[in-house]
Design brief:
The structure is a single chain. This protein has 2 helices and 2 strands. It is an alpha+beta fold. Strands 1-2 form a two-stranded antiparallel ribbon. The longest helix has 25 residues. The N and C termini lie far apart (55 Å).
Length: 106
């Protein structure tokens, strides 16, 4: 169920009538990608840093997102790189790259 809140009361002649909504698909797709990336990144952080890592907060916007995690110390550059590599590997396991014969030279 989706609930919408209106700034003004619904005019009398259209109460209980069907309405048609429009979805901003580019915006929606970006939000969906950031939502999925949050799961992938958290899973990668838990694999690299340990099972004690949990999501402490997240902010997902159209152009960027942020994930806050619990951990007993600041994440080092080496740990961050390992998390990024793990997340990238997970992505390619979900969406494998296919070699296109017509692009291959030789």
């Amino acid at each position: 169920m989706i609930v919408h809140f209106l700034d003004e009361p619904v005019p009398e002649g259209i109460k209980d009538q069907p309405v048609e909504g429009l979805i901003d698909w580019p915006r929606r797709q970006n939000l969906m990608r950031h939502h999925t990336a949050t799961h992938v990144l958290l899973g990668s952080a838990r694999r690299v840093l340990g099972e004690h890592v949990w999501q402490a907060g997240a902010q997902k916007d159209v152009d960027h997102s942020r994930l806050d995690v619990t951990h007993y110390s600041e994440i080092t550059p080496k740990e961050r790189e390992k998390i990024e590599q793990t997340a990238t590997r997970s992505y390619y396991e979900i969406y494998p790259c296919k070699r296109l014969g017509w692009l291959v030279k030789g």
